[in-house]
Structures are given as structure tokens and as C-alpha cells.
Amino acid sequence: MTVVREEAAGPGTSYRFTLNGEPRELSVPGMRRLLDVLREDLGFTGTKEGCGEGECGACTVILDGMVVDSCLVPVCQVDGSEIRTVEGLTEAQNAALNPLQQAFLECGGAQCGICTPGMLMSAQAYLEDGGSADEDGIREAIAGNLCRCTGYTKIIDAIEAAALSREVDA
Amino acid sequence: MTAEPLVVSPANLDEAFALRAEGGWRPLAGGTDLMVQLEADVAEPPERVLDLWRLAELKGISTDGYEVSVGALTTYTELRHSPIISARLHALAEVAATVGAAQIQNRGTIGGNVCNASPAGDTLPVLLAVDAIFECGSTEGIREVPAREFWTGYRQTALRDDELLVRVRFAVDRSRHTRFRKVGTRAAQAISKVVIALSYKDDHGTWRNVRVALGSVAATTIRATGAEAVLEGSRPRQAVAEEAARVLAEEIAPIDDVRSSADYRRSVSGRILHRLLREEGGW
Question: What is the pTM of this model?
């Protein structure tokens, strides 16, 4: 059994993925955290670091349609993937807030703001999966996102409002 | 962290086995344990990482009607949503739903849970209670290790340095009933204080092949053979349930740690077993 050693990914191996619809390619060590690639290498600082160990969800991004903690995903595992961060939620043409962001604004769903990008991504994935304005469903969808300010009530209100407005639109 | 580890993402399982045979390659599945260990500097960082995430041969859930076979890279999300798991071992779907929350469930894998061998690994008591078989693969082929022999000590397993866990199998048995309960600080994102699985074959009301398996009460996931002996061959009602709970609380030797106390774990283990028995018996 021969293994092609060129596949070995030392420092400087190139990884390609799509970030908020834009193709990206960069040479970084394979075990570098996606969170650091986003914030440090690409300057997408909307994604926050909270605990750095998968407990708080502040660094949540959507990877191939599913929420992940970007602090736990090494960049070698996103090669060829599609990544969405909070920067990708606004409507590209006019940088207007999307309906979910608008609902957070109107319902007071953000206080200090550290958990907000992660909350938005978890809620966005929930809504895109067809999640409804059901409180239990919303609570489960954001169970991996800790907020120390709001007590969650207004965050849940915001997600409910976004789900309801989508149902009206449909 | 010191030097950046070398990473290889092999294209197929044979390449992965060949690298494992060389020695020194640390397997990486969904990263939900390894990335935390690296960040916390609790483990010596590996020099070489074997990234298994894209190995299709390690994915998928299937059944031939006699056994269910679960690829080691199956995520908790996939376990939760699998019709086969829901029909054949619903407790495994339930336990998958209690691990972390969506972000962890989308990345964490059954193989990672088994091989990380944390005494708090939530799927482990269920797998132990149904006498699961672990397929350990290497360049030499597949070796089957029963769950009962797999966890050899605190975070130690029977997996050899040249092997990878390939699949987890368990028997399909309509007469077997398996229940699960986890006690944590909150419903999501909580590492277990106690996790318990109860499994038995219902022989016209008499319980046979009873298994009581627990996590977070010892250095490994364990079976409570004393409580099992109380239940074996019985038709558990209140008196038997009380005796089983008492024996269980006496036979385990949990520790005090940041998540709970030995006294609480001992007492709550007996209580949950009692409750599971009551719910199963419908009394």
C-alpha cells in the first residue's frame, strides 16, 4: 500500500471553500480552527469567540447547511464546503438587514451582542430547515447558544416573529 | 500549541489503515473532543493527524433484518433522524438528541464517542446495554470486539494503535426493550452527572438477559451486575425495583468532581433505575 505523501498537509497546504457565496482559497495549517481562519486570515470578525470549546455557540456558522461551532472545526475539514457567516445574512445589494436580523432589532433580541451572530446563524438555519414559530422548537434550535444578558425571552420572541412573518409572506 | 501538526485527509479507508500501520497518526473524526483537548492543552498535541471526516466507507446506517450496522463516522444528527435507529433502537436516537446541541450533534460521531472513551460518553451505556460489537479495522482486516471488553480503563480502549473503529453493530431483537436516562445540569450542552441504560428481553412478562449500564459513575462505562442479578428472571414490581435500586447504589463507586458529588451520583442512580423500572412495568 503506497500512500502519496504529497497529500500530507503541512503548513502551507491550500484549502478552497465558498464563504458567503464567494470562492476562497488560502494556504494555512490544516488543524487551524475555522474560527481563526475567518477572523484572523480573512477578516470576517462578525463571528465571535466565546469559550473556544464548543459550549457557548458564539462562533456558530452554517457549514454546508448545518450549524457548527467554528472553534471545533479544523480548516482541513471544510475543503470544498460552503460556509455562511453573519456577514452573509444581509442582502448583498443594499446591505439591508434580513427579516431575522430585523426581528432581532425590533424585539430587542440583542444586548451586549457577543452571542448575537451565533444566535442569528442558529436561528437562520432553523428557519431555513422549515422551523415554525413553535417555542419548544426554537428553544431547542438555540440550545447550543448561550446568552448571559437577555434571559432568552426576547431572542425567542424575535425568532418567532421572523417565523411568523415568513408564514405570512408564503 | 507548539508546532502545527501535519494533517492528512486520506481518500479511502485502505490509505487510512496504511497510515495507522506506520504509527503516530492521531485519528480525527468530527473534532468535538480533539479540538477541545488541543485548545485546552490537556493532551500532548499530536504531530500527525489522520482526518477521517470524508471517508464515505465509515458512514451510513444499514440493517439486514438481523443486525443494525452503524458507520463509525455517523453523527448524532444522523442517528436522531435515522428511521432504522428509531425503529430498532430508539434509545440510541434519544441519547443522540441529548448530546450537546445542534452544533455538536452535527459534528460529533458515534465512533468518536466510543473511541474517546470518556466515562461520561452518552452513547456508551446504550451500546454496552445492547451488547454492541465494535469492528476494529486495520491492514490485517477486521477484528470484532464486544462492547463489554472495549473500555479497558479511564479513556483507554482495546483499539490497537494500528486500528480504526470502522462500524458499530448490534442485534435486532423485537423482544428486547432498551431505555435510557441522562441526568445533567440542564437539558442541552451538559456533560452527564449520571447516564444509565436499561435493557432486557421480555419473555412473556419475565425479564431475561437484563443489562444495567452506567456512565459517569466509574473510570469507564460499566455494567451494574448486582442490579442485573436482582432483575434477571424477575417480573419487576415495586419490591424488586426497590431492591435493584438499593443494590445499584451500593455496588457503584462514583467520585466527587466538578460536575457532581459521589453521594448524589449514588443516590440518583438508584432513583433513576427505580423510575425506569416503574415506567417499564406500568405500575
Answer: 0.94
Q: Which amino acid is at B132?
A: A
What residues of B are in contact with residue A79 (Cβ under 8 Å)?
9
Cell digits for B206?
A: 419475565
Residue A43: domain span: 9-88
Instruction: Give tens-digit pLDDT for A49-77.
Output: 999 999 999 999 999 999 999 999 999 99
Based on the domain organization, do A142 and A80 belong to the same domain? no
On whether the B56-171 domain is CATH 3.40.50.720, my answer is no
Kindly report, residue by residue over B179-218, the tens digit of the pLDDT: 999 988 887 788 888 999 999 999 999 999 999 999 999 9
Q: Which of residues 182-201 of B touch A (CB under 8 A)?
A: 187-189
Identify the CA nearest to A9 among candidates B50, B105, B128: B50
CATH class of the domain whose range is B176-281: alpha beta
Tell me the pairing of strands B222-223 and B206-215.
Answer: antiparallel
Q: What are phi and psi of B30, to 5 degrees?
A: -80, -10
Q: Which residues of B touch A30 (CB under 8 A)?
A: 4-7, 9, 49, 51
**Domain boundaries defined on chain B:** 6-51, 56-171, 176-281
Nearest to B94 by CA among B126, B71, B72: B126
